[in-house]
Task: structure prediction
Amino acid sequence: MEFAKNMYELHKRVSPTEVIIGWYATGFDITEHSVLIHEYYSREASNPIHLTVDTALQSGKMNIRAYVSAQMGVPGKTVGVMFTPLTVKYIYYDTERIGVDLLQRTRVTPSRTKGLTSDLSQVGSAASRVQDMLTTVLAYIEDVLSGKVTADNSVGRFLMDLVNKVPTISAEDFENMLNSNINDLLMVTYLSNLTQAQIALNEKLVLV
Result:
């Protein structure tokens, strides 16, 4: 407890606006130590959240579960604590998608390692994912029109929002814009490779 308190005091010096809302532990389920640790964080936060991260992949994937505690027993003579599960929703920023995708690709490599890809490769993989998603959407629409699948109003509203967000632009203008962006990307890649070559050459000259 003293260690956690000291670490929190140090953290507040760097991020004074952040507060404790709960704690996490690795494992598949609640353990006998969870009650004691949760009791400590109940002093630091109101109704703290307890997260469990299944790093052993017992269910075949890294499950993340969330709980809140509730006292259990007769009034005035509480005999225990019960953890109630919460609904967990995964949300990440667009910039974090690169790291998430990179971690996903390590599953299919024998060494469980994967290097970073170039910017051009990332553009190609992103375009491929968009094409796959569009294929899925078109297949769903065709099934609805043919009567194979019952239409879902919520899906239709999402598709309508998607169509409305697409800017009105001619195919020629879109192609010119895409080629311009690709040329800019290639120029940045060329300059970064040139800089790396100059740095490597400079290091060799210094050693000589």
